[in-house]
Amino acid sequence: MIKTRVQTMELIRLVRGSGFFLSSVVTASIGIMLLEIIKSTDVSLFWMVLIVPIFFGSLVLRSRVWLSLYRGSGDKFLLALFTALVLIPAGTAIFILFAIYASSQTILLNPAEYTGVGTLVAMGIIWSVYSLMEMACSYNLFKGIFALSKLIIVAIVLADLSLAFLMRVFVYALPIAMFLLAASTLIIGLGFALGKERMRFA
Question: Are 187 and 143 in contact (CB under 8 A)?
Answer without folding.
Answer: no
